[in-house]
Design goal:
With 236 residues, the protein is mainly beta. It has two domains: 1-31; 39-233, Immunoglobulin-like (Sandwich), CATH 2.60.40. It has three helices and 17 strands. The strands form four sheets. Strands 2, 3, 4, 5, 7, 10 and 15 form a seven-stranded antiparallel beta sheet that branches. A five-stranded antiparallel beta sheet has the order 13-14-6-16-17, with no helix packed on it. A three-stranded mixed beta sheet has the order 1-12-11. The longest helix has 20 residues, at 11-30. The chain is globular and about 55 Å long.
Length: 236
Amino acid sequence: MNAGREDRPPRGALAVVAVGLLATVFAALLSTDKPLGAVELEWESKTPLPDSRPKAIPGGGEMRLTDAGIRATEANASEYRLFRVAAILRIDAGSAIGQGKLICKIRVPQRTIIAKTYRGRASYPRSSEELSDQGTPETIQVEFNSRSTDLATLEMSDAVGKSYTEEKGIVVEWPPYKVGQQVWRWGFPRGRPAEPLALPFATVWRTTGTAAAEITCGLITGGVFTGVSTSGKLAG
């Protein structure tokens, strides 16, 4: 009898091991809905946008846009680069916003394309029936050809923080998409917020042109409109 054959594992056992390894790999891939193999891109340049003037809310309180800015990556071989527009709408504690409607909009120049993730538009927050339950991303992956990959990982935690809000009862939705703009619609519960509200929002775009944006927010309460805005472009 051949001693080498006695030491060799049975073919059936090898097949079982191979099937087990493949099953483990497939299970790992199915356990995540995030694509693999993305290159990490840094925000190479940034420009802060001016805070808006505070506007009085009818019935009490004020709101304003703060922490707005534009950040951009390096250009790829096709001269496209990604840029992020972000801001925070701040509303005073005790403001008369009960059952009010808030619309915030980011407009960008022509020939600017919104970036896409595996879940759709690279815009945050996403539509949610309870905004306080929606987690904020530390990083995101978007479709972008750079350094021989089709995906780019970008930092987002500095724009959206650790929470979109802790106030219960706030909802947000995206209306149908229109070229050159991203819109959010917030709805507020009855009453006045006991604590100041800070509502961050951000979206990522790609362009071969100038990274620029206009940010506007309008609050409708009791049939009265209150609006704030800021705008600017990437320096350099």
